[in-house]
Amino acid sequence: MLIRKKAHARAGLVGNPSDGYFGKTISFIIRNFGAEVTLFESPELTIEPNERDHSVFGSIEALARDVRQHGYYGGIRLLKASVKRFFEHCVKHNLPLHGRNFTLRYSSNIPPQVGMAGSSAIITACWRALIEFYQVEIPKHLLPSLVLSVENDELCIPAGLQDRVIQGYEGVVFMDFNRAHVEKLGYGIYEELDPALLPNVYVAYTTKLSEGTEVFHNDIRGRWNRGERDIVSAMYQWANLAQRVRDMLVAGRGHEIGPLLNENFDLRRRLYKISQGNIDMVEAARDCGASAKFTGSGGAIVGTYEDDSMFEKMKAALEPLSVAVIKPQVL
């Protein structure tokens, strides 16, 4: 038995980072990039290392470069934590597990450390493989919360539900993380939208090294927990932007959402310390007439553009900044 399961990169179109704070977001999948987990039966349970997990380097410079690109941890911890959490979930809910062992290996071409949800893609693909191997049923609306628990509870990585929802549902999803709903049921209210409702959208990402999400979110979480007025108010504003964009898309007014995406980033810029490289990327895209905001936590942007002429203009403007521009494959 050979099982191969994938999960793709994603872009937070609008509303982020309110997903981790009982807000609302819209996200879409990026099929251009993905993580794949392979599972096959074996005598012992084995998790094979990927090139990101190695500990032998050609020089001290090579070690430093590897850490800047991939962080201090590869994917093994993600798989180990996923298997542990999967087992505990099955035991808790009396889901029978056979006694056969397996080997896991993973690969990913999702650009690292640029806010396109590479870690949660590996975890989601792992859960899909385990579900098939053990032939258990886990409802689609519950899987994102289980994936999030791997990061939040097992690995103490701060994150919200958005990435795990879109990687579980795929396509385009409007997410309402209503606090009463989430705290009572453990998941939000998820509405799948027709990808055809999207206007022309692009994704651009730096090919240089970037700070990871784990560092980026820490201070905002603390300020929100302390009830700082500016942060609490911003989460409501981001949620409202997501609701307005959702309503415009459903009404066939997708070509009008660009200013709201810009507003999403401008609010973030007032509250977060953002590196000059990220600001330059956003401003270069806007100078071409496109809208621009972060796909996640920095290193990649998403926005709308009018036509192919504007898209090519953006590519020419961003290439000198070591930024690649793509048309995301949503379907």
From TrEMBL:
Q: Which InterPro entries match?
A: GHMP_kinase_C_dom, GHMP_kinase_C_sf, GHMP_kinase_N_dom, Glucuronokinase-like, Ribosomal_Su5_D2-typ_SF
Domain GHMP kinase N-terminal as annotated: residue spans: 88-169
Q: Which domain of life is it from?
A: Bacteria
User: What keywords is this UniProt entry annotated with?
Assistant: ATP-binding, Kinase, Nucleotide-binding, Transferase
Domain named GHMP kinase C-terminal is located at 249-317
The protein's matches in Pfam families, at most eight in alphabetical order, are given as: GHMP_kinases_C, GHMP_kinases_N
Matching entries from Gene3D superfamilies are given as: 3.30.230.120
GO MF annotations for this entry? ATP binding; kinase activity
The protein in question is named: GHMP kinase
Query: Species lineage, top-down?
Result: Bacteria, Pseudomonadati, Verrucomicrobiota, Verrucomicrobiia, Verrucomicrobiales
